[in-house]
Amino acid sequence: MSDANDKSGLQNALDELRSINRIIDKICRVCETNHIMTIIIDELVGITDATQGVVNLVSKLKDEDLVTVVRGKQSHPEEIPFRVSSMISGWVLKETKILKITDLDTDERFKGLDSEGGRFKSILCCPMVVRGDIIGLTTLVRDKSKGPFSEDQSRLAGIIVSQTAQILSNALLLEELARKNELLELSQRRLSEENIRLQSEVGSVYSFESIVGKSEAIKRVLMTTSKVCRNDSPVLITGPTGTGKELIARAIHFNSARKDKAFVVKNCGVKTESLLEAELFGYVKGAFTGA
C-alpha cells in the first residue's frame, strides 16, 4: 500500500511539473502583456476548475489601487463579473501571501462581504511578487456547486502565479520602455522640426532683404557682403557706432556655409588687450594651473 501511495504521489508531482512547464513554455512564446495574462488566467481556471478568474495589476500611482486587466472566459456574459474587494486585496497586499477563503459568507476575516447567493463562495487570491514587490493579484473564484479549492489546487496555483510573475514583469517593463522610446522619438522629431523652423526664421531675419537702405553706399556694402558669404576667410567690418556692423556680420554668417554653426559676439571695447587675446585664442598649455 505504501509503495502504491508513493507511486501515486510521484505521478502527481510529475503531472504538476509538466503542467507548470507547459504553461511557462506557452507564455514564453508571446510578448504582449494582455496575452500573457490571458494565458495565466485560462490555464489556472482550467487546472483548478474555477468558475471565474481575474488578474489585477497594482497601480503605480497608489499601491492600494488595482487595475483590472484580464478576466476569465468561463463567466456568463449576462452575469456581473467578480470584482476583488478592497478588503481582500488589502489583506493580500499586507500579508504578501496566498489568501484562501473556503466560505466567504462565514469567514470571520471578511465580515460584511457575501458570496452573492453562492456565486463567489470560495476564493483563492495569489500575489504576483517580483523582487519583493507585488505587481498584481491573480484571483480565482468558485461557486457553491463546486465546493472549496483543495490544498493541492491552491499550492499549484501559487507556484504557477509565482513562476509567471517575473515573465509578466519583464513584459511590462519592455512595453514601458517601448512607450518611452516612442515619446523620445516624438520629442526628438518635434525638436528637429522646431530647430528647422527657428533656423528658417533666423535666416529670414538676417537675410540681406532685412537690411533697409537705398543709398549707393548701402548697395556697395550689400554687394560686397554677398561676395564675402561665398568665401571661407576672415572678414573685417569697420564703421562708426550704430552703423550696423553686427547686422552685416550676422547676414554674412547666416548666408554662408557656416550658418549651422554658432554665431558668437564679443564686445571688444570693454575688454583689455590681454583678456581679449585669451578669449579669442586661448592660453599656452602649462602657462598656469588649469591652462
Could you characterize the architecture of this molecule?
The chain has 291 residues and is α+β, with helices and mostly antiparallel strands. 48% of the residues lie in helices and 12% in strands. The protein has seven helices and five strands; from the N terminus they run ααββαβββαααα. The protein is rod-shaped, with a radius of gyration of 37 Å. The N and C termini lie far apart (91 Å).
Q: Which labels suit this protein?
A:
7 helices, alpha+beta, 5-stranded antiparallel beta sheet, 291 residues, rod-shaped
Strand order of the largest sheet: 2-1-5-4-3
- The number of helical elements comes to 7
**What structural category characterises the helix and strand content?**
alpha+beta
Helix content: 40-55%
Strand content: 5-15%
Please state the CA-atom Rg, rounded to the nearest Å: 37 Å
Mean pLDDT: 82
- Span between termini: 91 Å
**Could you tell me the number of beta strands?**
5
Question: What are the secondary-structure elements, in order, as H or E?
Answer: HHEEHEEEHHHH
Largest sheet: 5 strands, antiparallel
Low-pLDDT runs of 5+ residues are none
Shape: rod-shaped
Concise account of the structure shown:
By secondary structure, the chain is of the alpha+beta class. The chain has helices at residues 2-28, 33-48, 86-95, 151-205, 216-228, 245-254, 273-281, and strands at 52-58, 66-71, 99-101, 122-130, 133-142.
